[in-house]
Amino acid sequence: MMKRVGLLFLSTLLLLTGCWGGDELEKEEKIVQEKGKKDEKAIITGEINTGEKYYRSIFPFEPGGARGVIRYGVDNRLDINEFEMGLMRIAQDTFSTDKYFFQEGQFLNEPTVTNWLKRADEEPGKSKSKLDQTGLNPKLGVKVDEGDPEYKNKMLEANKNNPKYLSYVLEHNYLVQSGDGKVKLGGVVVGLSFNSTYYYDVNQQGLIYPGEVKLEREKVKQEAQKIAGQVASRLRTDPKLKDVPIVFALYQEEERDSVTPGNFFASGVVKKGSNSVSSWEDVDEDYVLFPSDAASKKKRSDYEKFTTFKSKVQEYFPNYIGVIGKGYYKDGNLERLTIEIPVQFRGKAEIISFTQFVATSALGELPNVPIEVYIGSAVDQPEALIVKDETTQEEPFVHIYRK
Questions:
Q1: Could you tell me the CA-to-CA distances from 42 to 11, 27, 31, 178 in Å, in that order?
Q2: Where is this region: Disordered (predicted)?
Q3: Three-state DSSP state, 153
Q4: How far is the C-alpha of 105 from the C-alpha of 172, rounded, in Å?
Q5: Which of 129, 148, 167, 334 is the most buried (most CB within 10 A)?
Q6: Nearest to 211 by CA among 219, 203, 221
């Protein structure tokens, strides 16, 4: 029997992976934030009850010291999103969302992050930070005069033999209440992002010669742990970071044109009073594209269910409908599925009818996990959203965009 689905028409939609009502929004809290020698009044934002746990944050908002720099280090927008959101997910293993509050990183400024992404033999730029500014990527190991007729070949070879591994450093701070309505720094999480393919350019007299080298995953892992050790030692030189736990999360990007993001592969904690990660734990996360040969081979059962869903959706229209899914796997199990369906619609009534069909008929063919379905026109215009947020949720949340 087909399930009943309510349609919501709204000019704007606030959705944090779940549906919420006004009675589920907890009241904000007034607190005092300790800042060096002075205290400042602040507010802990109210908590929205969603399908996932999110950290409450501190208002007024304080942007991170390296805000926006990530787009210069990480090429793929999917990787940027996954790196940032996944870092908060890993933080929850050490810093509970019930006890800690999120704040963007305040200790690594833009010049420091930029300097750390350089090679160890490059001259660092000026920074007001007292942290060691030496580059964390391998030395190039060669100096060649641009007038040398072999300049291009020598530089291409030098980059190929000494690739840059580290692509970005992202810092998050976690605050905790210290009594008397005050909050203080309770811990730091540092995400280190690494290349899977190192892309580089050699410039000779205005002519650009591109090159690339694919990096071995085991070598990336070795370099990542070594670089994390260097970062840990540097952070501990700051008196404010001397005695707080620091969590490191290691992430490897996908290639520039990948339609799925990379993944975290290891995490470790620098305990209070220590200058190094005591032990590393493997993180088993992966993103799989549906349909694809990889999904067919690695996730056969989920692949077959998605194929059935796709076939059912395509039966609705006589013309071809593209259906693309991205599955997030943790410890080998499908945790979340995101689906995009671009269709050429002829009117709003057609959109409503098609959305109802997907939500009430086709959706039941998919695995019983949280699902988001984005329905859009062929010109990338969003038309409808379907969210099945809980595995026990009988009726999905449906939103039809009104323009």
A1: 32, 14, 5, 14
A2: 121-144
A3: helix
A4: 4
A5: 167
A6: 203
SS3 171: strand
pLDDT in tens, 147-161: 888 999 999 999 999
pLDDT digits (tens, 9 = 90+) for 185-195: 999 999 999 99
DSSP H helical segments within 92-216, as ranges? 110-116, 151-161
Looking only at the bridges linking them, the beta strands covering 333-343 and 371-377 are parallel
- Please name every residue paired with 382 in a beta bridge, in sequence order, or none if there are none: 376
**pLDDT at 16 exceeding the cut of 50:** no
Residue count of the chain, please give it.
Answer: 403
DSSP assignment of 342-365 equals: EE--S-HHHHHHHHHHHHHTGGGG
Query: DSSP alpha helices (H): ranges in 74-174?
Result: 77-91, 110-116, 151-161
Tokens 């580059």 identify what position? 135
Which residue, among 365, 361, 369, has the nearest Cα to 308 in the 3D structure?
Answer: 365
- Expressed in percent and rounded to 5, the helix, strand and coil fractions of the chain are 25, 35, 40
CB atoms within 10 A of CB 121: 15
Distance CA 166, CA 90 (A): 19
Assigned token pair, 50: 């969603």
Beta bridge partners of 325: 290, 339
Q: How far is it, in rounded angstroms, from Cα 248 to Cα 193?
A: 11
Q: CB neighbours (10 Å) of residue 224?
A: 22
Which band of pLDDT confidence, cut at 50, 70 and 90, is reported for residue 378?
A: low
β-bridge mates for residue 200, sequence order: 211
Do 184 and 176 meet the contact criterion of CB atoms below 8 Å apart? yes
From 380, 306, 371, select the one nearest 345 (Cα to Cα): 380
What whole-number distance in Å separates Cα of residue 139 and Cα of residue 159?
10
Cα torsion angle, 128, 134, 140, 143, sign: positive
> With bands split at pLDDT 50, 70 and 90, how would you rate the model's confidence at 273?
confident
Q: How many helices (H) and strands (E) does the chain have?
A: 8, 18
User: Which DSSP category does 215 fall into?
Assistant: P
